[in-house]
Amino acid sequence: MATSASSKLSKTVKQQYLDLPQGDEVQAMYIWIDGTGEGLRCKTRTLDSEPKTIEELPEWNFDGSSTYQSEGSNSDMYLIPQAMFRDPFRKDPNKLVLCEVLKYNRKPAETNLRQMCKKIMGMVQNQHPWFGMEQEYTILGTDGHPFGWPSNGFPGPQGPYYCGVGADKAYGRDVVEAHYRACLYAGVKICGTNAEVMPAQWEFQVGPCEGIEMGDHLWIARFLLHRVCEDFGVIASFDPKPISGNWNGAGCHTNFSTKEMREEGGLKYIEESIERLAKRHQYHIRAYDPKGGLDNARRLTGHHETSNINEFSAGVANRGASIRIPRSVGQEKKGYFEDRRPSANCDPYAVTEALIRTCLLSEEGEEPMTYK
Amino acid sequence: MSYVSDSSSLNKALRQQYLSLPQGHSYQVTYVWIDGSGEGLRSKTRTMDTEPKSIADLPEWNFDGSSTGQSEGRNSDMLLIPVCMFRDPFILDPNKLVLCEVFKHTREPAESNHRNSCNKVMEKVKDLHPWFGMEQEYTLLGVDGHPYGWPRLGYPKKQGPYYCSVGADRAFVRDIVESHYKACLYAGIKIGGTNAEVMPSQWEFQVGPCEGIEMGDHLWMARFLLHRVCEDFGVVATLDPKPMTGDWNGAGCHINVSTEQMREEGGIEHIEKAIEKLSKRHVEHIRVYDPHGGEDNKRRLTGHHETASISDFSAGVANRGASIRIPRQVGQDKCGYFEDRRPAANCDPYAVTCAMAHTCMLEEGKDLHELE
Predict the structure, then answer these.
(1) How far apart are CA B348 and CA B257, in angstroms?
(2) Which site from A60, A99, A150, A230 is most exposed, i.e. has the minimal number of CB atoms within 10 Å?
(3) Hey, which residues 42-101 in chain B have their CB within 8 Å of chain A?
(4) Rg of chain B on CA atoms, in Å
(5) Nearest residue on chain A to B183, judged by CA atoms?
(6) What pTM does this model have?
(7) What is the pLDDT of residues B182-215, one digit of tens each?
(8) Strands A76-86 and A60-63: what pairing?
């Protein structure tokens, strides 16, 4: 059976309970990234009244020894609220709260990449950096096999599935539709969806987001996806190469622009940025998946619409290149560019920070600069 | 595949049609009590012709104690004395749930009625304004007794990914947790929060802060709501402190404690004094921290799986392997509360809070059993 036992419980009964009025009390679900740098965790607390701004949300703490983040003998870690969203599962006035994790000494936890990203974004805010990230993912059954695939085998080869329609081409659309609506309700800047090249693989896009907002919105969108899939009894995987062989991997192409790039004659600034990126390929590869490039090594082969992990390349309308300049941008001589290297399981804070450091702060070499 | 009860497959929409019938000037009041096991809850309902506004409006009642392990057949009547009233989240306003104390026909408290003596102690220490918060852990099982969502004849992957998790392969039976939370809020129970626990299919909810006798009242009613919600879905909640042997966490009911003095500036001195007193009465406390004089907790308090060993008393800041944990925040603020991690999930909160108040807040010299 491909869907979980939990998903078979009566949703009618659940709805009867969820419809109960709750007085003035509000449920706030605190969400954070765990020690793997990929996993999300959450727990809920009751508040006496509806928080209107992030400042009204208290700090909290959790047991880091249970999330691969600390030892049992010194396990308390802090949760610091950073971004608040409406809760599409429990609905208004309940909230979802994305948090940063601090260690017991109040320094950022190892996988808290947001703190440094925010600092870097602060240095370039007058350039108004915009990002859009294209999150690909695969829906799996609880047996770990892609959802809708025959149980001990494979569907027909790729070709008919990208943006496809029909029960023989699009697997798991209910998840996509539900997730889209949940994101819109929550206030996540979701701008589109499409079915991907591999069957049971889908993509949603988040953006345009300015600065730190990109990471915040993408992480919450990922949480919503896991939670929607949990309700349906299936699993969302951000593994960059879930099936080896002649099947596409999953990336998180990142679109980037500054105010200058978007204005008349902006192509010049786009080309300057690409030149800087060309000199720092390995630094970016290390930042573009949670394992310093090892995950992407399975995906960036030079086939299946990827560039080869060892080479940097750029080109207009070229999906086999590291950087693609959309044809319309090439024609209008202004706009944005697309970095196709980040893997589906990348940390968007790490990705966006790297782009700022190299393109706008003109950093070079293998190490990040330290700023005051 | 996990097993739900036959009852849960009855048509809930049909049920709703009946429950939507107006009830005129009749009010359904469900009396809830603790049975002879000290762990089980029982209930029965009566119709009243005026809406009870407070406990004073509720008449005494009685029941057949020989059917609940509480008396002999030939002298079986036992008394139910209402003590705490809540809204009914199942059949809704204006109907009520009423927690009751059980008395023998002689008007002495029944053996498993620990509320009576707890109330006496709480009266004595009420000027200290003792606050409690209890973290109730529990495991969800199918009707076959195997944890719900686990593979039918086996075990899931080992612990690590489940605590505070999201996703169909990590968080099992969230529907129960969500429904129970709403039911508690509606009923008026001081539910402070919820989270997924370290073992899969294990969850926790927190009740508090409650002052004095309120702790036991609210926790017992929260447990009744949990069993009732699970019944609706067709699964079973167990408060067994070690439901699965092997490398799986047990289930506790950590209790957080403070007095007004501890909460005020410099309160850490009072916290340390209290811990000092507790260190001298470890055996006495262990005896009342589960309904079988410590036998249940022997299976759980091993010194592994974030527990202290049952034979040793220890205390430490942010130390989850100790009997008493002082939260890091409290260590820094030098005031607040402390956490006793020893009580088992199936403890009687009246017995636990009574012992706590007796040891930490009363004068020296009296034996716990003197008050029984």
Answers:
(1) 16
(2) A150
(3) 89
(4) 21
(5) A17
(6) 0.90
(7) 999 999 999 999 999 999 999 999 999 999 999 9
(8) antiparallel
